[in-house]
Amino acid sequence: MKALGLLEFREITRGLVASDKMLKSAPVELITATSVCPGKFVILITGEVSAVKNAIQAGKEEFKDGVIDELLISNPHESLLSALSGTTEINLEKQSLGLIETFSVASAIKAADAAAKGGNVVVSEVRLARGMGGKSVVIILGEVSAVKSAVSSGIQAVEEGLLVSHAVISNVTQKLLKSWV
């Protein structure tokens, strides 16, 4: 069974050192290891559940006090990886747009997974805390009723206090979609 794992660190240097330990400790695939706003570091990995658990543990060992957040999702929705990398193929014709904005990277990923599982939609992208003051945004496309259902599922997955906002724009303009999605 596949899993998705995340560690978020207070400091970029500690995050890089921990990332190296994670990748050396278990047979996992690196999705991203990057700095995010404001001056934090996130590593996302995928692999078998046990390997991802071991890698997360290895990443936390040396810098326990530097870990801000962690996440393990067993059996993530198949579209989540492409949404995280921004490589989802999308049809921009006659779409409704759903948005979920969160205060944390992990909560956005949880929301995206729940949204993808909760409706017949495309989670086109998960924008992770870059240039947004540490906030993250989940972008969902599809028929308006499906998008509403997916957004509802997504916001239910976000812990109390971490949801900034959410919205559904039915039949969003093509100009906005092309500009922002």
The level 1 CATH classification of the largest domain is Alpha Beta
> How many structural units, i.e. domains?
2
CATH topology of the largest domain: Alpha-Beta Plaits
> Total number of helical segments?
6
Q: Order of strands across the biggest sheet?
A: 2-3-1-4
Number of strands: 8
Low-confidence stretches: none
Question: Span between N and C termini?
Answer: 31 Å
Instruction: Note the beta-strand portion.
Output: 25-35%
Order of helices and strands: EHEEHEHEHEEHEH
Quote the average pLDDT. Answer: 91
CATH architecture of the largest domain: 2-Layer Sandwich
- Biggest sheet record: 4 strands, antiparallel
Structural class by secondary-structure content:
alpha+beta
What is the CATH homologous superfamily assignment of the largest domain?
BMC (bacterial microcompartment) domain
Shape: globular
Share of helix, binned: 25-40%
The radius of gyration over CA amounts to: 16 Å
Would you kindly provide a written description of the structure presented here, covering whatever features stand out?
The protein folds into 2 domains: 2-74, BMC (bacterial microcompartment) domain (Alpha-Beta Plaits, 2-Layer Sandwich); 80-180, Alpha-Beta Plaits. It contains 6 helices and 8 strands. The chain has helices spanning 12-25, 49-61, 80-85, 105-118, 144-156, 174-180, and strands at 2-9, 29-36, 40-48, 67-74, 96-102, 122-128, 136-142, 163-169. Helix 1 (12-25) crosses helix 2 (49-61) and helix 4 packs across helix 5. The chain starts with a strand and ends with a helix.
